[in-house]
User: What shape does this take?
Amino acid sequence: MPFNRKVILKSHPRGPVGLDNFDMVEEEIQPLRAGTVCVRVDHLSIDAFIRTTLDGGGFHQSAKLGGVIPALGVGTVVDSAEPSLVVGEIVTGPMCSQTHAVLPAAMCAKVDVTLAPATAFLGALSIATGLTSYVGMKYVARITGGETVVVSGAAGAVGSLAGQVARLLGAGRVIGIAGGPDKCRFLVDELGFDDAIDYKKVDVAAELAQLAPNGVDVFWDNVGGEVLDAVLLNLAVEARVVLCGAVSQYENMADVRGPKNYLKIAERDARLLGFTIFHYPDRHAEATAVMADWLAKGKIVVREHVEHGLERFPAAVRALLDGGNTGKFLLKVD
Ligand SMILES: NC(=O)c1ccc[n+]([C@@H]2O[C@H](COP(=O)([O-])OP(=O)(O)OC[C@H]3O[C@@H](n4cnc5c(N)ncnc54)[C@H](OP(=O)(O)O)[C@@H]3O)[C@@H](O)[C@H]2O)c1
Assistant: This one.
């Protein structure tokens, strides 16, 4: 068997995560126990939730000091002690920051590459990206025809799909909020959003008041902080604010800042709806089927931002938090 190379957590970040919080080590792969498989990891998904696992008390899972970092991945089975998963099978699961993952076969899902390329199972067909966007828009936001929908973090993995899903579910107008002119052009020119707001350049509240004079019916929030506050000032009566995530807070989870304009929720008879995809297991099959169909028919556009080399894992996490990705951030492990 080959050696496993892995990125481990050397220290918990104090504030912004840095490259010095990680280390790289190599280990021999041990013989498999019954029911487990060894997967050579091909691609890792670089997701915002990874940052929340690094503090030692994350609200998803926690990376242990000296341990690998939680991350979803796709890879190829290279050794198997479980008859239902044979060598050569392509699978997805919690591969973590390493070249070879030894894990229970039950934690791996087979990837049907006739449905979509393997990396789509980390993007449009992944629980943490496409399924989140579909289930959140359909069953949490409960989009109805003609509504004005605003998405923050709109050029990222979840955001870029959430806006497109909203449109496909009947939204009348979709406005994205993202950082920088290139991302805003991507939203309008490639994804078909009606408008995009560059939160790094303009006053978001004032711009939204111009673009959505009748107010925002659904706000899908991926970032929290000042952007959330700006949108709260522009809610329509009976608006729904979907709290998908709050990436602006993930570097400082010990002192999360809530919105100062939260009274607008009462003033506009609005609803603040938190959710995580893990609370909707009975919707995953439907979400996968619908997203796969839309993908096959070209109804949704996915851009992948791919970096190379496991040693780039720490830099990739840093880059995601700095807005370095447009679309789905992937690391080709090589
Ligand atoms: N509820 C659920 O079940 C669920 C499941 C999966 C993901 N999520 C959430 O979905 C959100 C997006 O996650 P993702 O993995 O798809 O990441 P992503 O959107 O691909 O990447 C994160 C993006 O956040 C933006 N960002 C970073 N810091 C920011 C700040 N201070 N203010 C505003 N924007 C900032 C950056 O774009 P800019 O250049 O535009 O700043 C960056 O590209 C996260 O909040 C995540 O926790 C929730």
Observations:
- Residues 37 and 80 are 4 Å apart (CA to CA).
- Residues 47-49, 128, 132, 153, 155-159, 178-180, 183, 222-223, 225, 227, 244-248, 275-277, 320-321, 323, 325, 329 surround NAP (CB under 6 Å).
- The chain is about 25% helix and 25% strand.
